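Worked example 3. Consider a protein that binds (3S)-3,7-diaminoheptanoic acid.
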Amino acid sequence: MAHAPQAKYRNDYQSPSHEITDLDLTFDLHDTETLVTAVSQVKQLQESATLFLDGENLNLKGVEVNGEQWSHYQQVDGGLELTELPKQFELTITTLINPEANTALEGLYKSGGAFCTQCEAEGFRRITYYMDRPDVLARYTTKVIADKEQFPFLLSNGNRIAEGDLSGGRHWVQWQDPHPKPAYLFALVAGDFDVLRDQYVTQSGRNVALEIFVDKGNLDRAHHAMTSLINSMKWDETRFNLEYDLDIYMIVAVDFFNMGAMENKGLNIFNSKFVLANEKTATDTDYLGIEAVIGHEYFHNWTGNRVTCRDWFQLSLKEGLTVFRDQEFSSDLGSRAVNRIGNVRIIRGPQFAEDASPMSHPIRPEKVIEMNNFYTLTVYEKGSEVIRMMHTLLGEVAFQKGMALYFERHDGTAATCEDFVEAMEDASGVDLKQFRLWYSQSGTPTVTVTSEYDASSLTYALTIEQKTETTQDQSEKYALHIPFDIELYSSNGDVIELRCNNQKISNVLNVTQDKQTFVFENVAEQPVPSLLREFSAPVKLEYAYSDNELIFLMVHARNEFARWDAGQMLLAKYIQSNVEAVRHGQSVTLPDSVVDAFRGVLLSEELEPAFIAEMMSLPSHNEVSGWYKCVDVDAIALVLKAIKLTLATELEDEFSAIYHSLEQGEYSVDHAAIGKRSLRNMALQYLAMTEKGNELVQLQYQKANNMTDTIAAMSAANSAQLACREDLLKDYSSQWKHDGLVMDKWFAIQGSNPGENALEVIRESMAHEAFSLKNPNRTRSLIGSFLNMNPVNFHAKSGEGYRFAGEILREMNSSNPQVASRLIDPLLKFRKYDEERQALIIAELESLKAMDNLANDLFEKVTKALES
Ligand code: B3K
Ligand code: ZN
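Given these inputs, the predicted complex is written out as structure tokens:
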């Protein structure tokens, strides 16, 4: 490392020295030499006549102030410093950039044949010198000039106001965005596309043109995205009373994209993975993912764009809130329980793991070197849980009042997390003083509950203790305000009213102290408690449930989530006891009562198929690893497999009956049909482990009339290592080798191959014609699956998995540091493994650290990990 990059601190925030009211941009697009002219109207806001503009990798061609060449400037590290400036002026900056050489996919780059941009968080500074910070809001006008034949569509934010032809086969289009915005929401696209058009009439009767741009030939894969967009617009009006504010809404799908999608004002740019789908190419999971991401980016128009963030430490203000909104959208349109289960799995698995890792940070971080490193599960998913807790404490009506007040106060401005909480507090009268700690404290609290029933006084006492372990970033932890949702049941399954001090009380207990006891009166018998219902706070729950109590809750709990959770706790007990057994050389056992409880689930006639599928799925290897300080990779893998095999063998008849009864004729993507497929394919995963497995899986692959069933067959063959595995994969590849997006599913299966020669096959797969390390989707599918979904091979004692990861990371450090920095996460957690493995991983981290050109992204993570 030439010199250590500097961290920024939340507490150092300073308001901008100048404002930029208007920005007029001109792009003269050429593959390797694009000329960018940026004309800003600038006003000095503070004493100093010095203006600092951010800029990276730019070739500066000219600086003018009020039309005159300006010489009072200096190019410094990270930007341009202009001095002796008047109080108000027009600033013209000309820069030359090279989009074709931009493999980091930040700023202006080429994706396939098209030009596109990604500016969040700090990509605009790779386009021109500018005040690239979210609290500088300007009105943009953008003129795009390019070759007409190659780039018939020239797009930017806002409304198209003028266009024309030029000599030499070039043309131009000019766009104007009436809403002042920060630079991170700027977007430009130039290319040749097929366009799917529709329109939406808003609740107040305005017409909005909807346009989805996809690569030529992909029009038949854009319809689900359009439906999802229309559903999003409608839902935001109905549930949040929020209406769209421009005459046009455009979405462009591109193949080279670092993340899922980007909410640029009026011109969303999407990873094609979250737009393109038809039954031949996409699974049900893809369809649901598209609905969620289209919704998410659309909802940002209010939570993110109309009200943006004052600084990047406030990222959760827009992301936590928008994730909450997209989760609610998916829950209102589909199954609430299934959605909640999916979200909770993410928190309990990878988010808890992040909280326990060297990268641990509060949802509003205090210290950042590379902002791109903080688009995390903590900021997004835990951030959403924090919003959800406020929703639980306030209730829907008061929460919506809080939202309205938030917009009334902050529309058109850059706000802070504090502003949001204050609006919620003021609108509802609910005291959120202690609750605010969720924004500043990192780590996962453990909530330990004990209970005592007193038959003589008919009282039932719950004692609730909370403790948050120290994290690498924070040594002191305090008691949080935890909304703790409970219900009590009598032995026949009736709900017992909660009474304290002679009053009926709410199901949501306010846990605010280190240790607190709640005494419930009038409890006629020893009850069974249902605790942390709906996962009402992102905490680890500890309560010594007996098997019988959990089996009781699996049947009697009044909400589906609680039933699922009881099933998971029952499984957790036996996973843990069996891991211990295996470590002592004993074999894996599962009592009949547990098997019977799951038999009951499979035979239930009242439960929805999608929900049964969730009940039947074991916690992931990653989630289980999170339960341990020191992870025994092989023992966990062995136990999970053995428990699955026991259930498969014992419940074979039930699985088989379900599998055959749920066969569907014609394919449709409504929620009922999706649910049936997911249960049927869950049954297939189990049946694959039985004697008939190979035949059944092969048959499903041959007969499948949709991608969901095809992939279910392939992944069953993969995880059960069936004889047909290779044939199926070969067939799939010969059919889809020309379509990278469809091949991603194949790469993901290769990456997660539990077989012994997995790494060899992965190396071969890298030579597949559809593979390229330059494409983030391909890289994540193959390499990401290996690092995250292939525990046994990645953590092989030989160290070859780690060395492979190191190789890839060193290569990607220069080509695409953002993607490299996401890939590295599993290596950061090396302290959780035995000493030999630790040494092997440390060697890889050290070799990265020694690189001359180590990017800030990796520098930040590698140094934190090595400090741990
Ligand atoms: N706001 C973008 C994420 C940008 C990430 C930059 N590294 C997508 C989203 O959350 O909607
Ligand atoms: Zn977002």
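Take a moment to read the result before moving on. DSSP finds 27 helices and 35 strands in the chain. The longest helix spans residues 377-410.
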